[in-house]
């Protein structure tokens, strides 16, 4: 697992930050959205006004701590990126990539 981004959360629950990989470097926003049904995402990810991901609020089994499970995808990517946004230090949230 590798950290591929960092975000800060504002009082409206919107996360602003940057996603960085070897081929991707974008300023991104993760916004809460209304869900249409119980399996719909409760967050949308965008960069430069283009939506390229979705997120679901989850809770850790052992601690109950909330985190976001994200799926990022774009035609320029060979495959979707699956990542987890977790609380870090000093109000920072870390975007952790996993395969």
TrEMBL record:
Domain of life: Bacteria
InterPro entries on file: DUF736
Protein name, as recorded: DUF736 domain-containing protein
Organism placement in taxonomy: Bacteria, Pseudomonadati, Pseudomonadota, Alphaproteobacteria, Sphingomonadales
């Amino acid at each position: 697992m590798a950290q591929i981004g960092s975000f800060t959360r504002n009082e409206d629950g919107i996360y602003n930050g940057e996603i960085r990989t070897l081929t991707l470097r974008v300023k991104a926003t993760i916004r809460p959205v209304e869900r249409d049904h119980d399996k719909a995402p409760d967050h949308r990810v965008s960069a430069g006004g283009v939506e390229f991901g979705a997120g679901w609020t989850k809770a850790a089994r052992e601690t109950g701590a909330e985190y976001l499970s994200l799926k990022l995808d774009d035609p320029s990517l060979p495959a979707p990126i699956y990542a987890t946004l977790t609380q870090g230090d000093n109000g920072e949230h870390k975007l952790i990539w996993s395969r």
